[in-house]
Structure formats: structure tokens, C-alpha cells
């Protein structure tokens, strides 16, 4: 297996193979299926950690900061590329406690306008009672959402911690924890639905408050009023106006909470997909690449588009591949190095598009060439699936095939645009 990372990306990825004469093979392990020299002794079983045994883990203050990435050079052939654990925190919810201004009581003057004022005052009092109920519902939803978010991130931290120190592929304990994290994330999604229902109710109250304010101002023009009626109207108008402002602030804060929580849950669903892929491989990757792909606007490089796709005798010109994967044996452990290269590329250029090229060797007769092309295509499709499992949108990846007279085995080249 061989990886080669382009210098413009400023990524140092060293891949160790038996044919690399510039590396002292006595110092580093060889990535083959053979036993390393001097590796003897019985296997030592690793007991489940305390985080794995806890059915309801919680997120402590030091969990997120302590969960840092480790070098994956021995397993994936990456030297000097540390993987940092994703420490996504739930977005901060609004903290306002919406207290209604109240309604000032006043005697009925007995006039027609006084009776109208009494009706408006009663309707305003009923509206403020409903707003107090809405506020209690909002505070309860916030408390529930905070608890669900803490439980979810505690479970994710436990999974990441186990993946960081190393575990077996498809560890059933991690699979159970992943299922639990998925249920906890769905509870957060249910909290968003509750916020939406509450926002619809508050929108109805907003219409009612606007109607009361308009009716109160219109009452000034009614005939048959005395000075006391206008004094009570002025107080009622002021309290109605403050209620309108309160409803608008409540509606705005609910809208912001819903927007942030919806984006947060969407990103975490993508992270869960990537985490599932990491559990399957038994090694930590990182946050979903989808969070990198659309994190910030950036101009696409002005390099010439890849025009050699689906043609024979592929010529890359001056284009340097971001990663070169040589499938010279079964089960090549390329995913950690691929993730590191793509992740670092997206950090600097979030709008990058990737070309995955299946390169087959032109050796042997026509039948051998056809078999090599089929094998290279399957390997390229496998790399494409890995990228999508890591969270990279499929629309950002182009798949193509070519052949090379210099390749000795099936290769997959990944280019960046």
C-alpha cells in the first residue's frame, strides 16, 4: 500500500512499504500480513472500561478536553497526523424567563367606553395567563433538552474514548452505546417538535396581542367617554404594548432556538454515521466531513478540470494526487490516512471537490487488462463508499477510471479541485 500527499495541502503522510529504501525498516513496522519479528507471547484480554459498563454515562467537565486524538501511523500508515476527537457541544438555548407585565385593575365608569375598556382589560388578562403557561412550557422544554443533550454527549464521549485507546472492529459494547446515542438524539429531535408546537401557539397569541393593541387605540375615538375612561385606556395601551413586545421576543427566541437545534441535530446525525463507520473498523476517525464541507465559503481553486477521466493512458499533467492508495493485498487499511488528508483539505478549502480515479495496470494480455480494470473500479467504488460514510456529500466526489503503464498493481488516486 502506498499513500502520497500533495505538498500544496501541507500534509505530511508517510506510508511504509517494504520497497521504501529511504526508511529504516528496523525502526518501524512493516504493513504486511506477517507477524512482526520477535512478537511472541499469549494475547492479553482487555476488560471493558468503566465508560462501557455504565448504561447511562454522563458528560463530565474533563471528558471533552481529555479526549484528544492519537497518531494512527502504525495502523493506517500516517506519520505525524494526530486525530482530534470531535468535541461538539450542544448550542446554547435562550435563557430569558418571560414575565408578563400584568394588568392594572380599575373600576368600571359605567359609560359605553368604560364597558369597552373593561372587556379589553379582561381579554388582556386572559392573554397574559396564556403567556405565563407558554413560558412554563418553554422552560420545561429547555430543561429536558439540556438533559437529553448531556446524556447524548456523555454516550458519544464514552464511545470516542474507547475508540481512541483502541478496540476490536464491530465491538458489540460500542454498538449498544451507539444505539443508545441514536435514541438520545431522537429525543432531542422530539424536543424540537415540542418547540415548533409551542411556536405555533405563541404565533396565535401574537395575532391576539396585535388585535388588542389596535382595539385599545381605536377606543380613543369612541364618543361618550369621560376623562377616567381615557386615563384607563392610556394605562391599558401601555400594558398591551409591553405584552406585544414580550410576545415578539418570545417568538424570536423560540425561532432562534429551533433553528440552532435543527442544524445541530442534522450535524450530529452525520457524525453518528461517521462514528458507526469508525466502530465497524475499530478505529477513531473524527467528526463527519459534512461539517467541514459546508463550514465556510471559500473559492474553488483555479486548477484545470480533470479531463482524463474514463480514458486510456491517463495523463495527470501537473496535477498531484492528494492520496494514492495501492491495493497490493487484501484489506488495505487506508481509511484513517484518507480521512486525515480529506479532513485537512476541507479545513483550508471547504468547497473542495474530489476526483476518485481507479488506475489499473496495463500488464498482460487483453483478459488480464480487463480483469485489472474491473478490480480497480471495485476498489475505487470502495473508496467512494468510505468517503460518503465519513460524511462527505456524494455530490462532491467524481468517480472515474483510467489505466497506467507504470502501475504495478491496482491503485486509486484521489485528486482535489
Account of the 3D structure:
- With 417 residues, this protein is α+β, with helices and mostly antiparallel strands.
- The protein has 2 domains: 167 residues, 60s Ribosomal Protein L30, Chain: A (2-Layer Sandwich); 243 residues, no CATH class.
- The chain has 9 helices and 4 strands, in the order H-H-H-H-H-H-H-E-H-E-H-E-E.
- It has a 4-stranded mixed beta sheet, covered by helices on one side.
- Strand 2, helix 9 and strand 3 form a beta-alpha-beta unit.
- The N terminus is likely disordered.
Q: In percent, how much strand structure appears in the residues?
A: 5-15%
Strand order of the largest sheet: 1-4-2-3
Poorly predicted segments: 1-44, 57-87, 293-316
What general outline do the C-alpha atoms trace? elongated
Class inferred from helices and paired strands:
alpha+beta
Quote the distance from N terminus to C terminus.
24 Å
Number of discrete helical segments: 9
Taking all Cα atoms into account, the compactness measure Rg is: 31 Å
Average pLDDT, rounded to a whole number, is 75
As a percent range, the share of helical residues equals 40-55%
Q: What is the oligomeric state here?
A: single chain
The biggest sheet amounts to:
4 strands, mixed
What is the N-to-C order of secondary-structure elements (H for helix, E for strand)? Answer: HHHHHHHEHEHEE
Number of folding domains?
2
Number of strands: 4
Amino acid at each position: 500500500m502506498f499513500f502520497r500527499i500533495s505538498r500544496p495541502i501541507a500534509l505530511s503522510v508517510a506510508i511504509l512499504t517494504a520497497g521504501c529504501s529511504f526508511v529504516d525498516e528496523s525502526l518501524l513496522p512493516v504493513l504486511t500480513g506477517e507477524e512482526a519479528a520477535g512478537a511472541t507471547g499469549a494475547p492479553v484480554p482487555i476488560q471493558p472500561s468503566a465508560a462501557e459498563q455504565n448504561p447511562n454515562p454522563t458528560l463530565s467537565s474533563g471528558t471533552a478536553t481529555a479526549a484528544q486524538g492519537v497518531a494512527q501511523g502504525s495502523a493506517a500508515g500516517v506519520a505525524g497526523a494526530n486525530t482530534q476527537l470531535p468535541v461538539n457541544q450542544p448550542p446554547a438555548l435562550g435563557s430569558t424567563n418571560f414575565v408578563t407585565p400584568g394588568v392594572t385593575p380599575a373600576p368600571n365608569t359605567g359609560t359605553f367606553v368604560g364597558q369597552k375598556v373593561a372587556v379589553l382589560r379582561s381579554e388582556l388578562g386572559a392573554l397574559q395567563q396564556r403567556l405565563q403557561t407558554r413560558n412554563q412550557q418553554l422552560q420545561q422544554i429547555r430543561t429536558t433538552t439540556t438533559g437529553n443533550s448531556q446524556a447524548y454527549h456523555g454516550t458519544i464521549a464514552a464511545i470516542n474514548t474507547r475508540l481512541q485507546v483502541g478496540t476490536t472492529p464491530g465491538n458489540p459494547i460500542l454498538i449498544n452505546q451507539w444505539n443508545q446515542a441514536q435514541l438520545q438524539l431522537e429525543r432531542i429531535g422530539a424536543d424540537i417538535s415540542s418547540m415548533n408546537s409551542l411556536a405555533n401557539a405563541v404565533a396565535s397569541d401574537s395575532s391576539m396581542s396585535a388585535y388588542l393593541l389596535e382595539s385599545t387605540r381605536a377606543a380613543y375615538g369612541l364618543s361618550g367617554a369621560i376623562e377616567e375612561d381615557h386615563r384607563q385606556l392610556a394605562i391599558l395601551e401601555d400594558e398591551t404594548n409591553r405584552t406585544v413586545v414580550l410576545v415578539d421576543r418570545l417568538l424570536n427566541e423560540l425561532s432562534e432556538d429551533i433553528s440552532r437545534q435543527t442544524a445541530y441535530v442534522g450535524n450530529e446525525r452525520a457524525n453518528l454515521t461517521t462514528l458507526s463507520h469508525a466502530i465497524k473498523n475499530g478505529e477513531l476517525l473524527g467528526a463527519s466531513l459534512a461539517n467541514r464541507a459546508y463550514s465556510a465559503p471559500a473559492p474553488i481553486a483555479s486548477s484545470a478540470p480533470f479531463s482524463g477521466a474514463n480514458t486510456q493512458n491517463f495523463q495527470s499533467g501537473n496535477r498531484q494526487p492528494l492520496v494514492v492508495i495501492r491495493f497490493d493485498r487484501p484489506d488495505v487499511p487506508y481509511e484513517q490516512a484518507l480521512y486525515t488528508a480529506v479532513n485537512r483539505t476541507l479545513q483550508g478549502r471547504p468547497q473542495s471537490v474530489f476526483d476518485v480515479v481507479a488506475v489499473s495496470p496495463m500488464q498482460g494480455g487483453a483478459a488480464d487488462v480487463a480483469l485489472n480494470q474491473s478490480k480497480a473500479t471495485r476498489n475505487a467504488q470502495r473508496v467512494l463508499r468510505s468517503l460518503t460514510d465519513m460524511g462527505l456529500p456524494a455530490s462532491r466526489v467524481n468517480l472515474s477510471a483510467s489505466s497506467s503503464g507504470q502501475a504495478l498493481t491496482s491503485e486509486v488516486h484521489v485528486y482535489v479541485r
